[in-house]
Amino acid sequence: MQAGYRLAEIVARLGGEAVGDDAVAVSRAASLNGAGPGAIAFLSQARHRADLASTRASAVILGQDARDATSLPRIVCDEPYLYFARVSALLHPAPAVAPGVHPQAAVDPTATVAASARVDACAVIEAEARIGEGAWIGPGSWIGSGAVIGPGTRLYGGVRVYPGCEIGARGLVHAGAVIGADGFGFAPDRGTWFKIPQVGRVLVGDDVEIGANTTIDRGALDDTVIEDGVKLDNLIQIAHNCRIGAHTAIAACVGIAGSVAVGRHCMIGGAVMINGHLSIADRVVISGGSGVTKSITEPGIHVSGAPAAPEREWRRTTVLLRNLDRMNDRLRRLERATGKGEGHD
Amino acid sequence: MQAGYRLAEIVARLGGEAVGDDAVAVSRAASLNGAGPGAIAFLSQARHRADLASTRASAVILGQDARDATSLPRIVCDEPYLYFARVSALLHPAPAVAPGVHPQAAVDPTATVAASARVDACAVIEAEARIGEGAWIGPGSWIGSGAVIGPGTRLYGGVRVYPGCEIGARGLVHAGAVIGADGFGFAPDRGTWFKIPQVGRVLVGDDVEIGANTTIDRGALDDTVIEDGVKLDNLIQIAHNCRIGAHTAIAACVGIAGSVAVGRHCMIGGAVMINGHLSIADRVVISGGSGVTKSITEPGIHVSGAPAAPEREWRRTTVLLRNLDRMNDRLRRLERATGKGEGHD
Amino acid sequence: MQAGYRLAEIVARLGGEAVGDDAVAVSRAASLNGAGPGAIAFLSQARHRADLASTRASAVILGQDARDATSLPRIVCDEPYLYFARVSALLHPAPAVAPGVHPQAAVDPTATVAASARVDACAVIEAEARIGEGAWIGPGSWIGSGAVIGPGTRLYGGVRVYPGCEIGARGLVHAGAVIGADGFGFAPDRGTWFKIPQVGRVLVGDDVEIGANTTIDRGALDDTVIEDGVKLDNLIQIAHNCRIGAHTAIAACVGIAGSVAVGRHCMIGGAVMINGHLSIADRVVISGGSGVTKSITEPGIHVSGAPAAPEREWRRTTVLLRNLDRMNDRLRRLERATGKGEGHD
Q1: Which of A4, A112, A223, C263 could form a disulfide with C245, with the two C-beta atoms 3.0–4.6 Å apart?
Q2: Strands B186-189 and B192-195, bridge-based pairing
Q3: What pTM value is reported for the model?
């Protein structure tokens, strides 16, 4: 048997109630369908209940409502999805950072790398940059001159942080992300474009996750700001001078044009596009694929569509859209029947 | 004259019929308009027939229907586009892999690199990773610990393969692609987000091509799977736990949310967005720019639009959309003429 | 006081009229709101006039119409935004290029690097590549065999230039951009895909800026061409065989399919998608989020929407779209009132 945690140990740490044999030990997290012996799975949505009967998991996490839905050893709790996340973090902790600078890294002598930090092969750390305690700079990453990487932050392979940009503590930046490239700013000059120097920075708060190949541009004059706890998925573009409010989560392929202020605790679905200079209130939810062309001033509202409108309105529009053909037929019939159509008077 | 192949040699290898002087030699593939002496071009669509008269190609590939459309030396065959592809592969073979590890690469002593494989400068290969026979790891690429690159697979510059992910044989991965970054999984936790460890892998089959800066996330619990023969263009996002069926081709800028199952032999146009947890049947064709919000269960169907609907339906909708203004005018006219409009009773 | 320029010096160089104390010196460009002592700000849009009263800038640039809108030392000119850009370039010049090849770069002995060029750590320059005078190759970039980087061009970290591609003079390429990956070309072959060798190149003109993680594919047979003065934002995909006309500006997240010819002096908004084989005339403006499915032949036209149509038409369509529900109600009312609806005759 692999090392792991007995259910009794887990509830002692995380709360909840063990039901059935609480001496059962689990060593990894799994889905109901993918689980085998030694794994713990979870049920958070009623539609997966059928999978409970067939799972090979050694134990299951479920809500009060599903307390008796299985005879497996189980933990009953209030929020099974969050509880499962905590158990998974317990069973699969982030690897410890083995400190040291790889001999094939290139660290400028004026840069500061904390003794407990790690710098992988082919990473390049330029003049005056500062790497915090326990930070981990992945292979082939580039930390520009004067940039700051906070304590405990991990950059995977090939992350690019331009000069002067700052990332806070406990962050996670995935491969290929680019922090601090020039914003897209040009003044028209008799048929050509005159580049506007982009002299702002990118300031990223604490506990931020940034996805693979996502790009966040530096400010033109002031800074682009990503507040604490923001979660960004892959292939997102955040243009210069945006501010993304704390704990907002943004799914993949989203594009946010310049000088947009997104509120705190928002949820933005995949492939949403937000026009420049707009404001989005706190706790706004934007459905995937929406195109936001006006500011959203009502906190907590749910919007959808292109142009984005309150969710319910958009749902009816899409139904009507697919019935446009029938509306047209009804109109033509009325015109014929009443003799009052175009060209009839 | 450059070395090359005489038409007689080509038809001996690939079939088809040489018409005219089959001793003519060709050394490179070209378009009808771009061709010069020594080049072979092709005609596969009637609309390019006018270019036949002016081409400077030494020989042409065409279908039976166009057999007599030129007096140039030519190869007549059933599928001129496929035939041309084969001739081009003959004239422009992939460069042979010169084996060896560049002295400025960083290969962990516990990694396995086949003797016939090549590792370029500034590539980083971590512990326990395995590089197959004839594989080619491009400059600045990162192969995470325990990852596997199959025989004959080529990674261009700056490809990132996270720990534990596997790519099969004869693959081609373009610059900046990221395989195996964390999926976007967080449980809400009293206003903040609790990260769900992403413990699955990415498994890529044989003969897969992955475009530049495309991202494929590792599974949350189970694996993300790209089956054999899949072709992915640039800047595509494939989220955690997706399965892309064999020989499906996906154009650039597509976003596929989590846990989507795409069938085999599908064709997905550029910038298509597919919502999470959907299934797409085999041989489905999705037009560029479509937004798929429901599963597509009918194999071989062609869908378009946002939300995506069968192609013919969507075409009529878009025509009607551009006539909405006129429909509105017709409705107003009827209301006035009948005296039965809003506010009239 | 920081070194800088007195207003009198600035107008001597750039024209315009100094009003108030022209001995005031400024050392950095700032926004009205972000400015402090020593900064020069600008006003180009009437809606920001209120910020003039509260700015802490030492001097301001404004148009003739706003000549008396402040008592601060100021420069009055015809195009304040362009003038400000020039002042900013004066105050924040691009850093001088310190020549030399970093000992941890990997430069093939057959490559040519100009004496005044700079090659950073972990950059890889392959056989026969040529790096021009004053060019700067950033850390971890890859210049493939035979590729050419023009004089004065700067590549930031991790730029990938495939073999044979060429970039002109005074260019700026941001981190993670990929120039010259294979176009997405496959011939169907009995249920699988046969790769068509992509033997064209990418040719980039002079004074081109390319954004972070943008991808430009090499031509299939002929070349992909980016003409002089083109400005490309982040995360753009330009497929094989496209031609982008001189001085065209393209915002982030745009996807342009294969063989598209975009004219000169066009402006393409964010997230626009352009179908393959289309032509766009000169000076066309395409609103963000539009889907272009037909060629645009009228120079200077402004189009919007999906499918894209002339801007005014699309604005009315979107208004009507949000009123579809009401149109449907009006239609139903008419049907009832006249007794001529479906199923009534």
Answers
A1: C263
A2: antiparallel
A3: 0.95
Determine the pLDDT at residue B329: 84
Q: Strand A59-63 and strand C291-292: pairing?
A: unpaired
Question: Which tokens hold the place of B194?
Answer: 């609790």
Q: What's the CATH number where B184 sits?
A: 2.160.10.10
Q: Beta C74-77 vs C17-19: how paired, if at all?
A: antiparallel
B231 in the same domain as B165: yes
A295 and A174 share a domain?
Answer: yes
Write the ipTM: 0.94
* List of residues 6+ apart from C106 with CB closer than 8 A: B102, B104, B121, B122, B139, C122, C123, C124, C125
Separation of alpha carbons C174 and A215, rounded Å: 11
Is A271 contained in some domain?
Answer: yes
Active site residue B240: yes
Residues C191 and C248 in one domain: yes
Question: pLDDT class for C344, splitting at 50, 70, 90?
Answer: low
Which residues of chain C make contact with B236, given a CB cutoff of 8 A? none
**Residue length of chain A:** 345
Catalytically annotated residues of C? 240
Smallest Cα–Cα separation from B9: which of B87, B89, B92, B95?
A: B87
Domain range spanning residue A242? 100-312
Count: domains in chain A: 2
The verdict on B198 and B64 lying in the same domain is: no
Q: Does one domain contain both A79 and A116?
A: no
Closest-approach residue (CA) in chain A for C42: A221
Residue C87 main-chain phi, psi, to 5 deg = -65, -40
Which residue blocks in A55-104 are alpha helix, DSSP H?
80-91
What whole-number distance in Å separates Cα of residue A168 and Cα of residue A148? 8
Instruction: Please provide residue A195's backbone torsions phi and psi, each rounded to the nearest 5 degrees.
Output: -70, 130
User: Is the Cβ pair C320, B306 closer than 8 Å?
Assistant: no
What distance in Å separates the CA atoms of residue A108 and residue A92, rounded to the nearest whole number?
Answer: 35
CA–CA gap between residue C154 and residue B102 (Å, rounded): 26
Q: How far is B39 from chain A (nearest CA, A)?
A: 39
In chain B, whose CA is at the least distance from the CA of A33?
Answer: B222
Residue B109 lies in a domain: yes
Query: Which residues on chain C are in Cβ contact (under 8 Å) with B271?
Result: 255, 273, 291
Kindly report, residue by residue over C202-240, the tens digit of the pLDDT.
Answer: 999 999 999 999 999 999 999 999 999 999 999 999 999
